[in-house]
Amino acid sequence: MIPVRAKKNLGQHFLKEEMIADRIAATLDNFPSLPVLEVGPGTGMLTKYLLKREKNLTVVEIDHESVDYLQENYPALQGRILQQDFLRMNFSAYYNGEFCVIGNYPYNISSQIFFKVIDHREQIPCCSGMIQKEVAERMVAKPGSKVYGILSVLLQAWYDVEYLFTVNEQAFIPPPKVKSAVVRLTRNKRRRLDCDEKLFKTVVKTSFNQRRKMLRNSIKSLLSDETPLPEDPMLTKRPEQLSIAQFEQLTNLLEPLIRQAPPKEKDD
To answer: Are 182 and 24 in contact (CB under 8 A)?
Structure first.
C-alpha cells in the first residue's frame, strides 16, 4: 500500500521495486564525495537507498503530502527537505560547488529538468534517474536516427549520455501506460562550443521544429526575406542528418547573415 496518493497532475507514479531503487542509487557511485539533490522523492523509495550510501542528500518535492510523509518517516532528512518546484529552484542558494542530481522524474517535465541541468552544467557533473523510455531513447540517439532531435543534440553537446536499463510498467503504483528507462549523464570534456552558444540552441530548435524539411527551408525563419541563403551542401540535408559539429558549422554559417538582417518576428 502506497502511503501517499499519486496525483495525476504531478505525473506521479511511485516506484515499488526495492532492487530497482538500489540500482538507480548506484548510478552515482562514481561521485561518492559530492552532495546529491534528489528531485521528486515521493514516498522515499530511492531516498532510502541514497541514505544507505551515506550521501550528503537534499530532496526537493513540490507535493505537500509527500513532504509531510518524508518529514515523518525520514528523520535523517531533517532540514534537508525543500518544498518547492525544482524548475524554479535557485541552486546558488544551496550549493557553492558541484553536486549531482538524481530522481524518478515526473514524465511530464523530464525534458525541462534536463534543460535546467544543461544550464547549470558547470555545477552538475552527473545527473541520473528514471524517465519515460521514449525520452531516454531520444536522449541517446545518434545522427540518422528517427528519434534524434533537440534533446539529443543539446544534451550530447555537454554530457555523455548512457541508457542503463529498462523498467516495466508493473514496477510502479499506479502503473504508467509506458515503459521507463534509467539514464545517466556524465559531463564531457567540452568547455565551450565552437560557435555562439545561444544562437546554436536557436538553430537546433528551429531546425528540428520542421524536421521533415531540408535545412534551407526550416531555417528561413531566422533570416529576413531579403537575405539570400548561402550555397552550402549542408543546407540540403535534414536536421537529423547533422552531428553536433555540423550544427556548430551551421551556426557559424548563419551568424553573419542574422547579424545583417534581424530575424523576422513570429507569433508564439
So the answer is: yes
